[in-house]
Amino acid sequence: MSALTEAERKLGSALPTDLKQLLLQTNGIVGHNGVDTVWPVEEIVAQNLQARSDDSFARLYMPFDPLLFFGDNGGGDQFACVRQPQRPDIFAWEHETDSRRWVARDLRDYLTRSLAEDGDDWYQL
Questions:
Q1: Which CATH superfamily, name and number, covers 3-118?
Q2: For 120, which DSSP code?
Q3: Where are the alpha helices (DSSP H) in 1-125?
Q4: What letter does residue 15 receive in the DSSP assignment?
Q5: What is residue 122's DSSP assignment?
Q6: CA 121, CA 125: separation in Å to the nearest integer?
Q7: Cα–Cα distance for residue pair 48/97, rounded to 1 Å
Q8: Which of 18, 31, 108, 113 is deepest in the core (most CB within 10 A)?
Q9: Among candidates 105, 118, 101, 120, which has minimal Cα distance to 37?
Q10: CA-to-CA distance for 89 and 74, rounded, in angstroms?
Q11: Under 8 Å between Cβ of 39 and 50
């Protein structure tokens, strides 16, 4: 069984096509200052399963089920695709406020913006 097929089984849903294609080619992207712009598939599974099952997260934050986290800014904020309802938009989850803010129209836009900017807070502009 391929790593992506196993990831989809563990997560209980298919990965978005564009993310799946990227992971087949790269299995993650490290951006500025060593930040995991896109996590390896194993990290995507681990982070999402933890976010959805951790009781302390359930008490602190709104549900994460509609999101599929796939990367971070190195400071705690994470980036996610929308799983439910499935759509191409990318959102930033800001861990200190539990806000979920639109940052890119799709994965390509996210990669272009996050890798082109000098710094890991590009999405806060």
A1: SMI1/KNR4-like (3.40.1580.10)
A2: S
A3: 3-11, 17-26, 41-53, 55-60, 107-116
A4: P
A5: G
A6: 8
A7: 19
A8: 31
A9: 120
A10: 21
A11: no
Residues 51 and 63 sit within 8 Å (Cβ to Cβ) = no
Q: Is 0.85 surpassed by the pTM of this model?
A: yes
The full set of domain ranges for the chain reads 3-118
Written as tens digits, the pLDDT of the chain (125 aa) is 599 999 999 999 999 999 999 999 998 999 888 889 999 999 999 999 999 988 888 888 898 989 999 999 988 899 999 988 889 999 999 999 999 999 999 999 999 999 986 666 778 76
pLDDT at 125: 61
Distance in angstroms (rounded) separating the CA atoms of residues 91 and 82 = 8
Return the sign of the alpha-carbon dihedral for residues 81, 86, 87, 93: negative
**Residue 53 token pair:** 């099952």
Beta bridge partners of 87: 82
Residue with structure tokens 């060593």? 34
Q: What is the DSSP string of 42-74?
A: HHHHHHHHHHHH-HHHHHHS---TTEEEEEE-S
